[in-house]
Each structure stands twice: as structure tokens, then as C-alpha cells.
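thought: user wants a sequence for this fold. calling inverse folding tool.
action: design(structure=
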């Protein structure tokens, strides 16, 4: 399984010389195996992912997209994803928090692809779409050797995390979420990430910064280390970088994180990790 980071930034895309090494696109991560692609979130990095599929992996015809939630930085790249114009593509879209707005299909039809917000309507796209309204606690079997478990995260408006198991390899996508220091590490997350090979974790802030942003729905790299240590996780990708965290700051954070948890690394746009 190849895990690639197409967008690693939180909240808003960032550009300029201070973001060249770690990247400025917003949330989008893919897991590639057996000519199948599983995608987590559809931020601005999704455009580059689509171009890679078109140019480098034309044999991929089945795509599964899991949305953690519907905030702009996690969906804004979808209309610019090249495979939506390919009639040979089967695109399965999953989300947990869309039922109050009529479900995931209704959301895409009447919010994402709806004038005046976007000039193209969902019915004009050429890929074959299947929309799935899923729920926290669901266990989804994509193939006999591929499963996804869904679990709730603590974020304004709701969000979900995902545990992807491909054969004996496990990666977990945990963004966006806020920890509660007074309660200790989340038992829900600890159970979900147990013995994972890789966790992609929301490390928007540091423990020192967190008190200024309490209630924003994001966590810290230190909390990620605490979770990984207790759950027996092998590697942690620091992810959903705050827009104010320029390359120099991310360098310092990575050194600090590795010093206490050698399996930690800062996710960089374009980076691929093989599990």
C-alpha cells in the first residue's frame, strides 16, 4: 500500500517561498494498492491527485473517496478532480454527516455542483457515481481483504475518522479532531488506531499554542504522540498544518516530535510512504 500526501495544510491553501518544502494544498491523502485508490478528503490537493491518476495510473478504474466532513478545506478540490470526467471510472463517495442536509448525494447535487457556486452541475459529470451515507461505528468491506472502520471525531459540526486495513497493513486517518486535556487521550481514537502501521493525525497546533485555540476542533502533535504511544502505533504523520506554520516552524516541530517518538514525521505535499 502506497500512501501519498497531496494536500497537508489546514483551513486555507498557502503559497509563497515559506511553504515550498512542506506544501500549501489542503487536505487530501490517497492509499493505492491493487490498482484501486482510496482517498481521504478532497481539499485543493485533489487536483494534483487527479492529474497523477490521468498521467501515471490510467489503469485505476475504481476509486473510493471518504470525506471526514464538509468544511471547505476538505471538499473544495473535488470539482477539479480530472477523473470525474472519465466515463470508465467508478467513483464511490462516503460521508457520515450529510443526512441533516439530505444526504451526500443531495449535498453534491445542490451545494457543490450548483450555480451560482459552480458553473457545472452534477448531472453533467461523466464518471459513474455511487453515494453512500455511512455512520460512525460502521465496518465497511470494500474487498475481501480491504475494510474501513468509521469512528467519530470531536470537531465543530461533526467529523469522522477512518481505519483502513489492506491485508495485514493498517493506516488511520484522524483529521479533524480536538482532544480534551482534562479527560486524557480519547478512548475512541485509542481503540480505532490500535496497532496501526501509520496514523495521519491532526497536529494543527502545539500544546503551547492550544489554549489560544480551544474549541476550534484541532489537536496537537504532542497529543498525537500520547495516542500513538498508548495504542502501539508504528508511525505518525503530522498533518493539517496551521497556515501560520511556515517551513522553518515545521522543521522545528519535526525535530521535537522525532525526539520523543522516533516514528513521527511531518507530512509533506507529494510525499509517499510505503506500508
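)
observation: tool returned 275 residues.
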Amino acid at each position: 500500500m502506497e500512501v501519498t500526501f497531496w494536500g497537508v495544510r489546514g483551513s486555507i491553501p498557502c503559497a509563497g517561498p515559506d511553504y515550498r518544502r512542506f506544501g500549501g494544498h489542503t487536505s487530501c491523502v490517497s492509499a493505492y494498492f491493487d490498482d484501486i485508490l482510496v482517498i481521504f478528503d478532497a481539499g485543493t490537493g485533489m487536483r494534483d491527485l487527479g492529474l497523477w491518476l490521468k498521467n501515471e495510473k490510467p489503469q485505476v478504474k475504481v476509486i473510493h473517496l471518504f470525506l471526514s466532513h464538509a468544511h471547505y478545506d476538505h471538499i473544495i478540490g473535488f470539482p477539479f478532480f480530472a477523473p470525474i470526467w472519465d466515463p470508465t471510472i467508478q467513483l464511490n463517495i462516503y460521508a457520515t454527516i450529510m443526512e441533516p442536509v439530505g444526504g451526500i448525494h443531495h449535498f453534491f447535487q445542490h451545494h457543490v455542483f450548483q450555480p451560482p457556486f459552480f458553473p457545472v452541475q452534477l448531472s453533467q459529470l461523466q464518471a459513474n457515481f455511487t453515494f453512500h451515507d455511512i455512520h460512525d461505528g460502521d465496518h465497511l468491506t470494500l474487498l475481501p481483504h480491504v475494510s474501513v472502520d468509521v469512528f467519530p471525531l470531536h470537531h465543530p459540526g461533526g467529523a469522522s475518522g477512518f481505519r483502513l486495513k489492506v491485508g495485514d497493513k493498517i493506516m488511520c486517518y484522524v483529521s479533524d479532531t480536538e482532544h480534551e486535556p482534562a479527560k486524557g487521550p480519547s478512548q475512541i481514537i485509542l481503540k480505532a488506531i490500535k496497532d496501526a502501521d501509520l496514523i495521519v493525525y491532526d497536529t494543527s497546533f502545539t500544546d503551547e499554542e492550544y489554549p489560544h485555540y480551544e474549541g476550534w476542533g484541532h489537536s496537537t502533535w504532542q497529543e498525537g504522540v500520547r495516542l500513538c504511544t498508548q495504542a502501539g502505533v508504528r508511525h505518525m504523520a503530522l498533518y493539517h498544518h496551521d497556515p501560520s506554520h511556515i517551513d522553518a516552524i515545521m522543521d522545528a516541530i519535526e525535530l521535537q516530535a522525532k525526539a520523543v517518538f522516533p516514528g513521527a514525521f511531518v507530512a509533506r505535499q507529494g510525499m509517499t510512504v510505503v506500508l
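thought: summarizing for user.
answer: Here is the designed sequence. The mean pLDDT is 96.
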